[in-house]
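Retro notes
What went well: the complex prediction finally ran end to end.
Inputs used:
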Amino acid sequence: MISESKPKNIVELLFLQRAGANKELLVKTNAKGKITEILGNYLLFSPEGLKPGIPITEAFPFLSPFFPVAHREVVNLPAVNLGKLYVSVQMFYEENRDVWILFSDVTREVNEVKDFIQQNNDLALKQKTVIKHPPLDNPFGNLHLFGVVTFLKTNNNNLVCLGETPSWLMEYFPQLALAKSETELFEIFPYLEVFLPAAGSFWETGKEEMFGSDMWIETPVDNNELFFRAFVTNKNGNHYLMVRLLDKGDISVNQQTVQKARDQQLLYEKLEKAEKELKKLLNYKDKFVSIVSHDLRSPMASVVSIAELLLTDKQLVSTMSEFNLDMLRSMKEELLRLLEYNNRLYHWANLELGNFKLDREKTTIRKLIDSVSQTAKPKIEAKNIRFLSLVPEDFEIEVDVSLFTQALNNLIGNAIKFTPETGQIEIKAKQENGKAQVVVSDTGVGMPPKVQQSVFSGVPNESTLGTSGEKGSGLGLDIVKKIMDAHGFNIAVQSEVGKGTMFIINLIN
Amino acid sequence: MIKKKICMLGSFAVGKTSLVQQFVNSIFSEKYHTTIGVKIDQKNVLIDGNEVTLMLWDIHGEDEFQKVKPAYIMGSAGYFIVMDGTRRNSIETGLELQKMVEKTIGRVPFIILINKADLQDSWEISNEDIQQLKSMGKEVMLTSAKTGDAVEDAFIKLTRLMLK
């Protein structure tokens, strides 16, 4: 009976679950062609109706040559025209000579290529080139509708083109349908020369699966690229070669992936090159600063000495007006500041270049802080700042004494600069749970968040005037960071505008 | 008519396709368009009275995404190893491919083309590198697929070597 919504057996269930089952009809007949079962959309293929018991040839007269059943094989019939429909028919024979006949609607596929075939035939007639139609059916069905041309390799190593040919063949390679040997095929597709030796080995295995080539490109006209792949297989002891024009959509996805990966690789290589160039330029800049600041040290020190000499010459001083004397004193102070700035610049450039060697030695943090507070004492007293040192006597540390002292000097100097008169600076060192810290805090003006973020960014900051108009180089904290990095220590800052700043050194090692 | 197969080999984006396009069609495109698979072009040339059909196998660039299969090289009468003057790492890939070819088909004529001569200001491959390649007994030519400089000369030179 005609299949209803509820499948009656597993065959019907499987058939109805297939994609596209609404465009197919499956009919079972006995060996004489009498219908025993009908599954699928019979109205599409036989509007007059089908029913069990009647001969299949009554509804489909073109099947007459196949009944009563004479052989047991699969039969593929190319697109059969049934009025408005094109139908592909496949017949499967069971052991008991019952036959399953699958009708598939291929009207859309045929219509898609019909115009091309028409155009090609017109062209062939116009060029008076008559392409002989290949005489043998293609045992794989209507592969030409999927852009595939199929060849059978004969026992005497010749090639025979099977079944219908795809539209691209007629358009670009009409001579392909007439190729009789591998040599003739290589003339048209030289790529096959490298594929067919491997194909030969595959044919010898007798396997009935597909063995495919890589992709190759042909440009038959106007530099328009066509992508092809070849496949070989075996069937019933015969060897087959198929050449397929690939779908542009598939190619573009494949190509886009590799293209994208390679574009990124090229971009990465460019960035790497740019980074190398920048590092070279930065190195050049640091070397330049290091050399210039080094060479400026001696003449600057000489001028400072001359100014000192003049100020200690009592005879000269007695002849000078108070105004000129002040000018000379200012000159000396400014020169000293310039010398200090230059020293920092020299130091900074060498730290940046890595032109130093850490000379670690064991010492106590107390010793270092005493030395630093001694150096800072005049400035602390000048601003009437309260200085507290809360450092245990036996707190040992292994550092480059000269560099670490300089870092502490810079931190204390920074705290003095930004702490107003009568403020407080505190330096603490503590060891807890295997962690060791040195903390320098002040009750100064503090830093806005933006400055806090950039203070250890590796880029020197612009110098800011202190609370009493003190000038600086803008390099001090950057030098501190570089010294801590060289030791493998970590430094962080916490600050609040109007309340003060705290630098925390974590002595990791 | 004599037929000769020539393979274009090298790292990706060194200009293999552009060299073939410049030689066969006298065109050049700035846009990098990666070659998937193999592209075969033909060009007839007349060399010393011999008419030769050159079958130019433009094989996809070698990198971790696509490896050149030795089968592609079979039957080659000669080949080009193309390097990109602006990318020093293309030397290494080129020399590895050259070894692979020699292992597959033995010694046949080949020329190393250092391409992108129009960008010589930004070359990473130095004169010392070129001298080193020459000292290894390799034929080296500097080409520009963009301007066409030395492109035809390179194909003619290789064809002459193949006809010897």
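What we learned: The mean pLDDT of chain B is 93.
What to try next: split runs per interface for comparison.
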